[in-house]
Write a structure and sequence with these properties.
The chain is α+β, with helices and mostly antiparallel strands. 21% of the residues lie in helices and 35% in strands. It has a four-stranded mixed β-sheet.
């Protein structure tokens, strides 16, 4: 929040902290930041959880997630195979990498893109 205050965005940004499995957003958002929280979701439940949160994104909204290291490749694979990755950056660390992905739900085939 300090950064949002320093850049004058504190009045337009909202931050929530809650149980990732039970939290219900009270609106629709342009960006939902998961940071490092996806590690705490069992890999077999990540797609279900992201699909649930997808209904709380505005049109053209995105999720942003940080994934540390290749050991979490199944998380990256799930995102890349089920969502439209808008941007993916990697940052090399000694012996590993950090990946930051911005992604959104894919359009249905019968919907205009």
């Amino acid at each position: 929040m300090k950064r949002a205050e320093d850049t004058g965005r504190a009045a337009t940004n909202q931050y929530f902290c809650g149980d990732i499995f039970t939290y219900v957003p009270d609106g629709r958002y342009d960006v939902m930041l998961f940071g490092d929280s996806l590690y705490y979701v069992p890999w077999g439940q990540i797609l279900t959880m992201l699909n649930r949160y997808s209904s709380y994104l505005r049109e053209n909204g995105v999720f942003v997630a940080r994934v540390y290291g290749r050991r979490y490749q199944p998380i990256i694979d799930t995102i890349q195979s089920h969502f439209q990755v808008v941007e993916k950056q990697s940052y090399v660390l000694p012996g590993d990498e950090i990946f930051v992905l911005a992604f959104r739900p894919r359009c249905l085939e019968n919907e205009p893109s």
